[in-house]
Amino acid sequence: MMVTKNMLVLVLVNVITFSLVSGSVWLDVPNTAMDYDLYYEVLNEELCEEQLAYIKSDRLLAATFADAGFRFPKGFFDGSSVDLGNYHQCLGLKEQLPTSELEGKYCMIEIPFDQDFDFPINFKETNFNPKLLPLAEREEKLKKYNMSGTHRSSPDSWLYYSLIRVAICIPKPCTTRQALSSLNTLSFEYVDEFCRLPNDKPWVPADIVAIVLFSIIGLLTVLSTTYDVWKKVVMKNDPKSVSVLWTAFSVYTNSQRLMTFTSSGGNIECLDGIRALSMAWVVLIHTLTTEGVIANDLEIYQWMETWQSLWITGAHMAVDTFFTLSGFLLVYTTLGKFTGKQLIKNIHLFWLNRLLRMFPLLAVVSLLEASLLNRFGDGPEWRKVASRIESCRTNWWATMTHTQNYMTPFFMCIGPSWYLAVDTQLHVLSPILLFWVLLGNRKIALTALFGGLIAILSAATTYNFISNFQAFLLGHDDGNYFKNYYMNTLTRASPFFVGMIFGYFAKTFKIKLRKWQVVCFWVLALSLSTFIMYADYATRFEFNQTVANFYNSFIRPLWALFLGSLIYMCNRGYGGPINWFLSLNVWKIHSRVSFAIYLLHEGLMTAVNHWSITPIYFTVSAMTYKFLSHYTFVFIAAFVAVLLVDAPFSTLFKLVLGGGGKKTQKQEVDVESTKKEATE
Fold first, then answer.
1. Where does the signal peptide begin and end (predicted)?
2. Cβ burial 102-124 (10 Å sphere, 16+ → b, else e)
């Protein structure tokens, strides 16, 4: 009952905290990341006319407003359809007029291409019209890669669907139409997209909650570290005599545990390398997908058609790596420790332990994205960051209950957390098979494991052939593929089941192989991985629905088969240089912070990428450099998060679940138990 009461308290604190965060449960506070009412409150038609007249009379001021805005997008024929102007220059404009203060307002407008433009040039004399430009090649590329911009309808030309987005800088009290209509020589049809003003990010309860919570954690860290250093360093007391509870938040102790690489018996060393490299692979693909405005979109799509892009476009397999490792470790770590009856008797603790492993970091990162991320930076495309923030403020409950892949698939708090939802759902269902595995009978265990895999593959294959999904994540998608296939528990479960099978093999089956057999195995394994990568490339743009259905059904369990075989061979001493590389100590620290990296990376990268005030020109070398900088930044943030949040709460949970401080020495040296199975 003590455990249950403590857990109920934690759940209650969670509900109260995030109810305040959302601002819509108990408090009448808007969840918006920007003060949209402010944009309407500042409008004043008479004041606008007065300020426009002043600008016209001052050529330097007029040039400054013009310089901060309206330009035709550079690189239009390379796929660029956006010009961002100069965001900070526009919002920094401020001048005191005789009767008012003149300030700049940054606005973005959408200009459809299917219209006659009236520019201050005599087109009749110059024989020029933008619609008569030699756009056939661009039109074919736009059609091929489905790069259109608006919902306008016309059967004549793909360009009738295209638009350009340009920034304009206007006086604060003006609408875009009033400001542009003052330029009598400039006339065209357009649509307002958004406007931005200085200090348009309102403070909300989430910000206050975050500041208070992080301040408390900071204070506990200082006090705990001071006590720890005083006892162990200054007084040189025996570490066994120092209170584990009082040192739970100590940076001194937690950093020692985090940086200790001594291996205990039974660990599979290669898992660290697999986990660390897979996490880096995830960050790599998100380096591209979280980018802001790109100046040469067409070149990216052309490059993605080539085999040279496989090292990036194949990164979606990294998530299947995590599913495989999760299933593997579930069986490997429980087999021999429990019986089937003990599992059923303590199933509530089995589930609770799983949830508590993820709870502290997941809650803190959710709160961070709902609050202080909005103060992290700013830029012309910050609306995309604001959308993440608003999703967190509204839909945090789906993230904390691990239901976001079904309840809020397009408005998730922490984008990559859909994986945690699927993984948690699989862990909740896993005792159905795990019970038979823990009975101790090999035939029953294998029958249950292979029966479960066959059942899930049959159901997923049937579902895929009925639904007819596309076969490539980065292709055009109306949301159906992402929601109903990519984040679906049924279609993503097979690697988890394959991992469970290999976890059982690694624990119970010992084999002896000759050298030629080992060589043959590695040739087959590497051939399988090569085939998987080639299949990813082959199904990319030459679309065949039957092939796509088979690909979606079997490519992920095949990847899990390759990965599980690799782990098994490395564990049995047949890994050679591959096992040596994956077992290097350098991967251990990356592996231990991988869960924090997974939660933090996309939000931080999206914010950093959307600071940019100009479109980014894509090259492979530039993206590689950006990936390295992103990974370094996120790694540091993750390391701090583990020290200040994950490690302290792991210790506290162990004290609660373990019955107090009698096992302090074991808890202090048990590094592996603090890892997160979610990304292991």
1. 1-23
2. bbbbbbbbbbbbbeebeeeeeee
User: Strand pairing partners for 96?
Assistant: 101
Alpha carbon distance 443, 437 (integer Å): 9
Burial class (CB in 10 A: 0-12, 13-18, 19+), 227: middle
In this structure, the answer to whether residues 163 and 270 fall within a common structural domain is: no
What share of the chain has pLDDT > 70, as a percent?
Answer: 82
Is residue 224's pLDDT more than 70? yes
* Cβ atoms of residues 23 and 215 within 8 Å: no
Q: Which residues contact 454 (CB under 8 A, 6 or more apart)?
A: none
Give the whole-angstrom CA distance, residue 200 versus residue 581.
51
pLDDT band at residue 124 using 50, 70 and 90 as cut-offs: very low
How many CB atoms within 10 Å of residue 315?
A: 22
The pTM for the full model equals 0.87
Evaluate if residue 158 carries a pLDDT over 90.
no
Q: Is the pLDDT of residue 157 over 80?
A: no
**Mean pLDDT of all residues belonging to the chain:** 83
Asked, for residue 211, whether it belongs to a domain, the answer is no
449 shares a domain with 322: yes
Q: Is the predicted pLDDT of residue 638 greater than 80, yes or no? A: yes
Which domain range does residue 86 map to?
A: 37-196
CB atoms within 10 A of CB 153: 7
* Neighbour-count burial for 647-663, b at 16+ CB within 10 Å, e otherwise: bbbbbbbbbbeeeeeee
Q: What is the pLDDT of residue 671?
A: 34
C-alpha 9/C-alpha 1 separation (Å) is 12
How far apart CA 15 and CA 679 sit, in angstroms, is: 25
In tens, the pLDDT along 457-501 reads 999 999 999 999 888 766 556 678 888 999 999 999 999 999 999
Predicted local distance difference test score (pLDDT) of residue 368: 94
Asked whether residue 276 falls in the same domain as residue 188, the answer is no
d(CA 613, CA 135): 28
Residue pLDDT, tens place only, 268-289: 899 999 999 999 999 999 998 8
Q: What is the DSSP code (8-state) at residue 244?
A: T
Residues 190/193/198/204 CA torsion (nearest 10 deg): 160
Q: Which of 614, 634, 598 is nearest to 291 (CA)?
A: 614
Q: Going by C-beta distance under 8 Å and a sequence separation of 6 or more, which residues neighbour residue 273? A: 581, 582, 583, 584, 587, 591
Please tell me the total count of domains within the chain.
Answer: 2
